[in-house]
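Dear colleague,

As promised, here are the two records you asked about, laid out in our usual form so they can be pasted straight into your sheet.

NAME FIELD: protein one
SEQUENCE, THEN STRUCTURE:
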Amino acid sequence: MPIRNNPDSPDLDKPSLPPRPMVELQRRGELRVEKFLEAATEVFNEKGYQAARLSDIVKRAGGSMATLYRAFGDKEGLIHALMERSIHNFGQSLDELANSTLPPELALEQAAYRMVEEMLTPARIACHRVVFAEGMNQPELRDWFHAHGVQPMEELLSQYFTRETEAGRLYVEDPARAAHQFYMLVIGGVILRSVNGRMSPDDLPVAKENARSAVRLFLSGAMPRN
């Protein structure tokens, strides 16, 4: 059966990222930036985005408010930096899937493990909590995260399913829709539970086992027909 892409999938223009001041490149500056990001992750997770104060972050990280402003501009710049890093790390797991020569059942299982590992990092949990809590009040932040952090990942999955179906190793009628379904089946529950505090990085072994089961369930409907 020929592969068809989902005609209902919108081709949205990706929101542009507001410019952020250049981060100091000296080693000392790099270490300070890392400390700011670590402190911001902790404060966002503890207090939420709205209640978090830059002074709290500076106090925990050390350094000065001037250095923080020079590196990130403001609180929104900090959360953008966390989002960018998490998106990059998550994207690497799917890049490995795209280049994998393993059978789909092994390649997808490994990709699912890497996906849940990133979903349960404190930084990713902080990003999701901000997007969930502030999505209505700051739709541009929510839409940026979706356009840069969700949509490209589903596109990579769609390309993988297209390739594997054309090679006869999978049977996927609609790669775009299947990509969304796989994404949500593997990590949807992890995102929801980590956002509401019912799952933490300590639950990674359970999350990986759930991901393994999700991959098997997905493949039960996606293996080639005899």
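NAME FIELD: protein two
SEQUENCE, THEN STRUCTURE:
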Amino acid sequence: MEKRSMPAERWRELVSIAAAEFADVGYERASLNRVIRSCGMSKSSFYHYFDSKQQLFEAVVAHVAATVAADLEVPEPADFQSDFWGLAERFLQRLVIAAERDPLFVNFGRICYLPDVPAGQGGLAASAAAVDDWLRRTLAVGRSVGAVRCDIPSGLQAHTAIAVLRAFDEWILRNRSALGSGELPLLVQAQFEAVKRLLGPEQ
């Protein structure tokens, strides 16, 4: 039976608990028994919907990726034509609000950087590829309107920008629980300023 047959409220509970389990201990150490017990489900009920931990992981990744994308209302690259850096800053601010409001958002980010995800897990790879493609297309718009420097090859520029963004994201997500009140917005602002200095046209 497909997981879509699961009652919506039970599915949301399972997603939240499973995402936290994977994010906290990694894929390999994640315990189906812990997830099932925390949800108040029986094993027979769980296996009525899923055959394995990997199948649950794939379903959780697909659901959360779609939910996060919808909640963030990600701008189209063409939207950046009129106010490239202003829109970029406002979008990052929305990311901060989402991260502070919804633990599921943070846990999905942490899952994206897990080192022990099965090689055959295509959901995370597809999500990462979609983000990279969006960034490359957005940078192309920035170059076309003069908001992004054009003195280095576009491929190298995108590769460098993605590496910087990921370095900030991974560190922030890994250390999120240790951050003091108000530190997250400051770090995200620093991330924005670093990327703007890296990509902005020379003054």
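A couple of things worth noting about protein two: Residues 3-199 form a domain with the Tetracycline Repressor; domain 2 fold (CATH 1.10.357.10). The chain has a mean pLDDT of 88.

Best,
R.
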